[in-house]
């Protein structure tokens, strides 16, 4: 009888520890982090990063400017200070911030200060938006690594995060949309229009020329 009584406190302690561990594991598994990047056309950045394991969602939007709740037309016309950007939500236990930043630099032309590929103007510039010291440190390291890899000056700034405004609904997941749209290539489904635009804009061609085998989203 005394053995059973003595065992109860130990058993209780084991159950408490197991419960705390399970709770911690559930909380850790549910954690997500957000990274805000501008890499030219947000359709392309969204398409690239949604293909990665550990990324749970990518949202296209506008940030970096002064105008509240801007529209696509206002941003692309210029004068708002906003960039076309994305917010990447990811599970840091599956893919790290450093990995994402490394892939970001190798999916754009970070030496171009005037836009990206065929898209010119302030809204198409590259940038990394940071909201804390850890993000800033990761961004600075990734920028230095990119400069060393290319042996060129990197034009991509690291900026303090400002309000992020979600883009209009038709911009979200544009690269896989099925709606028929009119384009300079004729009537096409959104997914087809996206592929035609990306090819005509020379994005993958320039990224492959710049980064070669290190380009993470260019195939062939």
What does this structure look like?
The protein has 220 residues and is an alpha+beta fold. The protein has a domain at 31-172: 2-Layer Sandwich (Peptide Methionine Sulfoxide Reductase, Chain A), CATH 3.30.1060.10. The chain is built from seven helices and ten strands. The strands form three sheets. It has a six-stranded mixed beta sheet. A two-stranded antiparallel ribbon has the order 4-5. Strand 6, helix 5 and strand 7 (158-160) form a beta-alpha-beta unit. Helix 4 packs parallel to helix 5. The model is unreliable at 1-5, 10-18 and 20-28 (pLDDT under 50).
Characteristics:
220 residues; six-stranded mixed beta sheet; 21% strand; 7 helices; Peptide Methionine Sulfoxide Reductase, Chain A; single chain
